[in-house]
Amino acid sequence: MEPDLRAFNLIMALRRQGVTDGRVLSAMETTPRELFVPEIFRDRAYENVALPIEAGQSISQPFIVAFMTDALNLSARHRVLEIGTGSGYQTAVLAQLARRVFSMERRASLMRSAEARLRKLRLINVDTMVGDGTRGWVEQAPFDRIIVTAATPKEPPEDLLNQLAVKGLMVIPIDRGRDGQVLVRVKRTSQGFQSTDLLPVRFVPLLEGVASE
Questions:
Q1: What is the distance between the alpha carbons of residues 213 and 79, in angstroms, rounded to a whole number?
Q2: Is residue 76 classed exposed, middle or buried when 0-12, 13-18 and 19+ CB atoms within 10 A define those classes?
Q3: 27, HSE (Cβ side, Cα atoms, 13 Å)
């Protein structure tokens, strides 16, 4: 099966799962997922499943990438903070929809690989930093949108909430212990924060600090 047909079939599967935003689907279709997975898994790149990558991490299921992106309600004027660059796949999708993406990763080796992929795709509206994602990127705040690709216990980190602009949105997995993880959308208003549960998910935990290589 040719890559473009596999991508088309993936987009049809995402539509059936309820992702209907045309801009999000177009970004997903034009992002070559095979570039973001190890060679051994490239024949499965367009399956709607998570796959292993370097450093014991994984590339998220395309449905989750599309769903989280859709939940951000992005426009071409938005500045987005991404916590957890990983393979760079989610970053590449965001970069096609937002004005600028600021992406943080705690593992330098993952960031180097992701940066190489983003350069290959000529996505020049991405700034990257190896750092503690729980602290955010205060020098570039505030952000119109924040997306976190690892689960935090009980509630979003305070530093990230403080870096969200008024009227901004954050999409983040929250670990509620026995009740499992749930994807939450947080909206900042002039009075405070409003949270909405979206769907059950399963992510690696959000860790503090920078990983030693």
A1: 30
A2: exposed
A3: 26
pLDDT in tens, 144-169: 999 999 999 989 999 999 999 999 99
Contacts of 113 (CB under 8 A, 6+ apart): 54, 87, 88
- Tell me the pTM: 0.95
Residues annotated as part of the active site: 60
Read off the pLDDT of residues 78-127 as tens digits, 9 standing for 90 and up: 999 999 999 999 999 999 999 999 999 999 999 999 999 999 999 999 99
Instruction: Indicate the CATH number for domain 61-201.
Output: 3.40.50.150
Instruction: Provide the token pair at 171.
Output: 């999409």
- Are 36 and 120 in contact by the 8 Å Cβ rule? The answer is no
Instruction: Report the SS3 class of residue 122.
Output: coil
Please, which residues bridge with residue 152 across strands? 174
CB 83 within 8 A of CB 149: yes
